[in-house]
């Protein structure tokens, strides 16, 4: 496993902060009628204006900078001429390469101003699941502890987590060891060590956790077409505990 030095974590902290600022702008730009490829163009411009590079463009053949996944799409949705509609649940997932290191983060938002209580609950539970996972990621704990804490919390709220898509280590590569599932057995899996940097990214579903391939050829969707939310932070395990780098 690839542990990072404090100097490397400092670079990732800088990159993570830039990524968070870019996501703030993108989230504020989500509105009824915008094409998802417009959000992708904005992401490209914002990234190059900050001297960074997109992590996902051409990664495993993905032809865009930003992943935009809507409603039953879980992750990896391809930006297109499709327009956002009132009440859509949109997930924006973005990675950037800055000074040699990748950071990765995702947000979930509801399009428009109409109250959607069940969708908002799904987003709130996903956000809290990520918080629970991060709080559990203390040095000496295991990734099984982290996944277990996320899954138990999500189940307690009446939802479930996707099994086939998981978080990951991150650094000079966007996907590094270890795997970071959103489920697990306490005490099992790799032990969290100082200098580990991981992306924790619960994908929380209203229905069943089984997934299928989406019609755009890139997105994964829920097999039952029910809604899915996704929120992600890149975090470092430091002497002071887990630190969110993408804020
Ligand atoms: Mg991501
Ligand atoms: Mg990720």
From TrEMBL:
Domain Peptidase M24: residue ranges: 10-238
Cited Pfam families: Peptidase_M24
Root EC class: hydrolase
InterPro entries reported for this sequence: Creatinase/aminopeptidase-like (IPR036005), Pept_M24 (IPR000994), Pept_M24_MAP (IPR001714), Pept_M24A_MAP1 (IPR002467)
Record's GO cellular component terms: cytosol
Binding-site residues, substrate: 76, 175
CDD domains associated with the record: MetAP1
Record's catalysed reaction(s): Release of N-terminal amino acids, preferentially methionine, from peptides and arylamides
Domain of life: Bacteria
Cofactor: Co(2+); Zn(2+); Mn(2+); Fe(2+)
Keyword Protein transport in record: no
Residues that bind a divalent metal cation 2: 104, 168, 201, 232
Chain sites annotated for binding a divalent metal cation 1: 93, 104, 232
A GO biological-process term: proteolysis
EC identifiers of the protein: 3.4.11.18
Entry keyword set: Aminopeptidase, Hydrolase, Metal-binding, Protease
GO-annotated molecular function: initiator methionyl aminopeptidase activity; metal ion binding; metalloaminopeptidase activity
Family per record: Belongs to the peptidase M24A family. Methionine aminopeptidase type 1 subfamily.
Function: Removes the N-terminal methionine from nascent proteins. The N-terminal methionine is often cleaved when the second residue in the primary sequence is small and uncharged (Met-Ala-, Cys, Gly, Pro, Ser, Thr, or Val). Requires deformylation of the N(alpha)-formylated initiator methionine before it can be hydrolyzed.
Quaternary data: Monomer.
PANTHER family noted in UniProt: METHIONINE AMINOPEPTIDASE
Protein name: Methionine aminopeptidase
Source organism of this protein record: Candidatus Yanofskybacteria bacterium GW2011_GWA1_41_6
């Amino acid at each position: 496993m690839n542990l990072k030095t404090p100097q490397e974590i400092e670079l990732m902290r800088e990159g993570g902060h830039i990524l968070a600022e870019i996501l703030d702008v993108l989230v504020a730009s989500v509105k009824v009628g915008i094409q998802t490829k417009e959000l992708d163009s904005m992401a490209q411009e914002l990234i190059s204006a900050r001297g960074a590079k997109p992590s996902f463009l051409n990664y495993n053949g993905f032809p865009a900078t930003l992943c935009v996944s809507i409603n039953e799409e879980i992750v990896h949705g391809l930006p297109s001429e499709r327009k956002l509609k009132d009440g859509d649940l949109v997930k924006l997932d973005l990675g950037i390469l800055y000074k040699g290191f990748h950071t990765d983060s995702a947000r979930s938002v509801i399009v428009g101003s109409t109250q959607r209580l069940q969708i908002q609950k799904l987003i709130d539970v996903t956000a809290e699941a990520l918080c629970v996972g991060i709080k559990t990621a203390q040095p000496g704990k295991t990734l099984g502890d982290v996944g277990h804490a996320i899954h138990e919390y999500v189940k307690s709220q009446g939802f479930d987590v996707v099994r086939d898509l998981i978080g990951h280590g991150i650094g000079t590569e966007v996907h590094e060891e270890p795997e970071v599932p959103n489920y697990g057995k306490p005490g099992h899996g790799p032990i969290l060590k100082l200098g580990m940097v991981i992306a924790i990214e619960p994908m929380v579903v209203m229905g069943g956790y089984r997934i299928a391939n989406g019609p755009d050829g890139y997105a994964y969707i829920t097999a039952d077409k029910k809604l899915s939310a996704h929120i992600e932070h890149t975090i470092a395990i430091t002497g002071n505990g887990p630190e969110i780098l993408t804020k």
